[in-house]
Amino acid sequence: MDEILEVLEKDARTAPQEIARMLRKKPQGIKEAIKKYEKQGVILKYKAVINKELIRDAGSEVRALIEVNITPQKDLGFDKIAERIYSFPEVNSCYLISGTYDLLLIVEGKDLHTVARFVAEKLAPLENIRGTATHFLLKKYKEDGVILKHKEENKRIAISY
Questions:
Q1: CB 137: neighbour CB atoms within 10 A?
Q2: Left, alpha or beta for 158 (phi > 0: left; psi -120 to 50: alpha)?
Q3: What is the pLDDT of residues 20-67, one digit of tens each?
Q4: What is residue 90's three-state secondary structure?
Q5: Per the confidence metrics, is the pTM higher than 0.85?
Q6: For 27, which of 20, 37, 93, 135 could close a Cys bridge (C-beta 3.0–4.6 Å)?
Q7: Are 123 and 68 in contact (CB under 8 A)?
Q8: d(CA 4, CA 23)
Q9: CA 30, CA 16: separation in Å to the nearest integer?
Q10: Cα-trace Rg, the chain
Q11: What are the CA-CA distances from residue 88 to residues 12, 43, 92, 111 (Å)?
Q12: Which own/partner contact pairs does 92-100 have at CB distance under 8 Å and 24+ positions apart?
């Protein structure tokens, strides 16, 4: 992978001038390369990794990993079915995988029941869906290469006299 992309993948906020300094290149060349990558669709989006554990509130969402078994369509394979599935707003990510299941979905909902309803009412009834397995995320330790530090709770017992 290009060195510019490697730097931006680690920290998308790195300024072109800083990248130029790091790579011993001219800032204008870096800016042009970044614009080219954006235009070609190589760089799709700039994103912040947020530790949602530290901002939990009543509106927090639940995330689930859903494995999906499907029957591929003749002459279309998995692509058409995957497109139908990833079009649902609840589906955050969709991957074709090897192994026992065919697709891996990352789904978000306001609570467990919302995700369960999505599976029961929208996903499972689709033609070509043979089965699903849902795993709810309980705690994240690392995401996108970033270790998520959690607030340390005071485990000492308060003593009063």
A1: 11
A2: beta
A3: 999 999 999 999 999 999 999 999 999 888 777 777 665 568 999 999
A4: coil
A5: no
A6: 20
A7: yes
A8: 8
A9: 6
A10: 21
A11: 28, 24, 9, 17
A12: 92/63, 97/67, 100/67, 100/69
How far is residue 123's CA from residue 121's CA, in Å, rounded to a whole number?
6
Phi and psi at 120, nearest 5°, equal -70, -40
Q: 145 — phi, psi (to 5°)?
A: 80, 0
Tokens coding 131: 């089965």
Q: Are 102 and 70 in contact (CB under 8 A)?
A: yes
Question: Distance between the two ends of the chain, CA-based, in angstroms?
Answer: 63
**Ordered structural domains, the chain, with CATH:** 3-40 (no CATH), 60-139 (3.30.70.920)
Question: In this structure, what token pair is assigned to residue 84?
Answer: 């139908």
Residue type, 112: L
For residue 24 the two structure tokens come to 């011993």
Cα dihedral across residues 42, 48, 52, 58: positive or negative: negative
